[in-house]
Design brief:
Blueprint lengths: L3 E5 L10 H15 L3 E6 L19 H12 L3 E5 L10 H6 L2 E3 L3 E5 L2 E6 L9 H10 L2 H9 L2 H23 L10 H12 L4 E4 L6 E4 L5 E4 L8 E5 L6 E4 L3
Parallel strand pairs: 1-2, 2-3, 3-4, 6-7, 7-9
Antiparallel strand pairs: 1-10, 5-6, 8-9, 10-11
This protein binds manganese (II) ion.
C-alpha cells in the first residue's frame, strides 16, 4: 500500500566520475520504495547543473528522469524543492513527469504530522555575498542572458563553476555541525516554529545527515546527501521519521 513519505536530496548527478553508478543506485532505491511511497520529496541539488532551454534539454540523467516518470505514472506524488545547483530546472520536470516544483520552503501535513521542508541554501541570511549571488542567479535577466548564449560555451563553464563551488562547500562544512548560531537552516527553522507549530523540519543542502530536536516538539532532520552518504529519510504514518542508509 502506498502510505509512506520519502525524502532524498543532493545527488549532484553529472559531477564526479561515479555519477552513473550513483544514478543507478538512486534508481534502484526509487524502484524499491515505489510500491509503498505515496509522496516522494526531492530536496534539491539532484543535478549538479541544469538549464532548461526553451527548445532543448541538456544531455544525461535519463535513468533518473525515466524512473521518476514511472513512479509518477504508478501514482506516487512527487515534489521537487529546487536547490542552488538545479534552480534553473523551471517547468521541465513538471511537463515531463508531473512533478510539483517549489522554489521556497513549505509547510504541509502528512499522516497527522506537520512538516516544514525545503532545500536549505541561503536560509538564516548568514552570508551576504551568497544572498547577492543567489539573487542574481534567480533573476529573469540573468536567466535570459544565459539562455541567449550558445550551450557549447555556457554548459562547460557552468559545470566547472558548479563543481568548484560544491568542492569548496564540502571542504568547509561537510560532516560537521557548525553550531546552533552558524547553521542557517537551524536558525531559520527555529524562527518558523515560533510562528507556527511543526513536528519535523526536513532539509538537505548541508551534506551532513543529522537528526536533532530543536524544541520540545520539533525535530530537525537533514537528509545528508546521495552524493557521498547515500542517506534518505522515510516517514511511515503512526511512526517517527527515520534517517536511513541505502544498502545496494
Ligand atoms: Mn545545495
Amino acid at each position: 500500500m502506498k502510505q509512506n513519505l520519502v525524502f532524498i536530496s543532493d545527488a549532484h548527478l553529472g559531477s564526479g566520475t561515479d555519477t552513473l553508478q550513483r544514478e543507478r543506485q538512486l534508481c534502484q532505491l526509487l524502484n524499491q520504495i515505489e510500491p509503498t511511497c505515496r509522496t516522494l520529496v526531492l530536496l534539491g541539488d539532484m543535478f549538479d547543473f541544469w538549464f532548461t532551454y526553451r527548445h532543448v534539454v541538456p544531455k544525461g540523467h535519463t535513468r533518473l528522469i525515466g524512473t521518476l516518470a514511472n513512479m509518477a505514472d504508478k501514482g506516487t506524488e512527487i515534489h521537487f524543492f529546487i536547490g542552488n545547483h538545479d534552480m534553473w530546472l523551471f517547468d521541465y520536470l513538471h511537463q515531463e513527469c508531473g512533478i510539483i516544483m517549489h522554489s521556497e520552503p513549505e509547510r504541509f501535513t502528512f499522516g497527522e504530522k506537520t512538516f516544514l521542508v525545503g532545500h536549505g541554501d541561503g536560509l538564516g541570511h548568514l552570508d551576504r555575498a551568497y544572498d547577492f549571488v543567489s539573487h542574481f542567479f534567480r533573476s529573469r535577466t540573468c536567466q535570459r542572458l544565459f539562455s541567449m548564449l550558445p550551450p557549447a560555451l555556457t554548459i562547460p563553464f557552468a559545470r566547472r563553476w558548479s563543481n568548484n563551488n560544491k568542492r569548496k562547500h564540502l571542504q568547509q562544512d561537510c560532516d560537521r555541525y557548525l553550531g546552533d548560531d552558524r547553521e542557517g537552516i537551524v536558525i531559520y527553522c527555529k524562527q518558523q516554529i515560533e510562528k507556527c507549530s511543526v513536528d519535523y523540519c526536513v532539509f538537505g543542502h548541508r551534506h551532513t545527515p543529522l537528526t536533532m530536536p530543536i524544541s520540545n516538539t520539533c525535530t530537525y532532520v537533514n537528509t545528508g546527501d546521495w552524493l557521498t552518504h547515500r542517506t534518505y529519510a522515510v516517514f511511515i504514518p503512526g511512526e517517527t521519521l527515520q534517517l536511513l542508509s541505502f544498502e545496494s
